[in-house]
Amino acid sequence: MQLFVDDLTVIDFSYACPNRGIVGESWIVDVLLKGDLNEQSMVLDFGVVKKQIKAIIDAAVDHKLLLPILCESVTATTSKHRDGHEYIDITSKVGNYFLHSPSCAFAHINDKKITIKSVTEHLTNIIFAELPKNVQGLVLKLRAEVIPSDFYHYTHGLKLHDGNCQRIAHGHRSKIKLYENDKRSETLEHFWCQRWEDIYIASESDRVAKESIELSPNAMQSLTDNHQYFAYHAPQGRFDIAVPSNKLEVVDCDSTVELLADYIARQLKKAKPENSYQVVAYEGVAKGAIANV
């Protein structure tokens, strides 16, 4: 017997890539279970699937930075600054990134690169170990949202969030709809998606001096004038990141989707004060915010 749940959840995360740097991503998760019927004449109660399996997935990869630990471009070491924290050093063709965060902010994937296949295998092993004995098979399908228009990948962190959004390097793959004088503008959408391609979005209020950043000894020796530094304390611990300037947008607000929609609207209005604008900004799949100016 087989039991399926489509659109079980969406995982929003970022991953380290030797070509693109740190990339924000959003994948939809479908689940198929195979097994014998239990004493309730079920393979597994839908409530258990929706709650327990979703919780396992969320704990394993959601709102984390996924690290391909077999890749030579990624180095993870134990923090000498704080208990329960890790240093992460990432080299890439677009620049080098250096992080220091609680260990819960990272997921170590046993592969050379982060792909749907490698993350599927990682999650399958974790989930299957928690399933009852009558469940004999598990098929996960991870898939990106089909977006016929432009979209962008972004990474950020929210220091004021009391949940996992506080992690300084999690992200999303998002579409955007922009209206100028009540008419949708694909030209403006393309511009912003190009501007925010594989971007790290930081808040100016989180900027710190190089002297106060907490990074690995290797990172401190590898920093260049191209790096900018951001750090904050949140309920889960201390978060630090050094980002190459060419992959960075610094905003004058927090990077919630509400304030990012407002930020884009303000930039558009500043360029052409005589026009009206509506920004429909998405945060991953099927959720977002609207700003009007």
UniProtKB/TrEMBL annotation:
Statement: the UniProt record of this protein carries the keyword Lyase: yes
InterPro entries assigned to the protein according to its UniProt record, in alphabetical order: 6-PTP_synth/QueD, 6-PTP_synth/QueD_sf
Annotated pathway: Purine metabolism; 7-cyano-7-deazaguanine biosynthesis
Entry EC number(s): 4.1.2.50
Coiled coil: none
Cofactor: Zn(2+)
Pfam families the record matches: PTPS
Catalysed reactions, as listed in the record: 7,8-dihydroneopterin 3'-triphosphate + H2O = 6-carboxy-5,6,7,8-tetrahydropterin + triphosphate + acetaldehyde + 2 H(+)
GO molecular function: 6-carboxytetrahydropterin synthase activity; metal ion binding
Keywords: Lyase, Metal-binding, Zinc
SUPFAM superfamilies: Tetrahydrobiopterin biosynthesis enzymes-like (SSF55620)
Transmembrane segments: none
PANTHER family attached to this UniProt entry: 6-PYRUVOYL TETRAHYDROBIOPTERIN SYNTHASE (PTHR12589:SF7), PYRUVOYL TETRAHYDROBIOPTERIN SYNTHASE (PTHR12589)
Family the entry assigns: Belongs to the PTPS family. QueD subfamily.
Protein name (database record): 6-carboxy-5,6,7,8-tetrahydropterin synthase
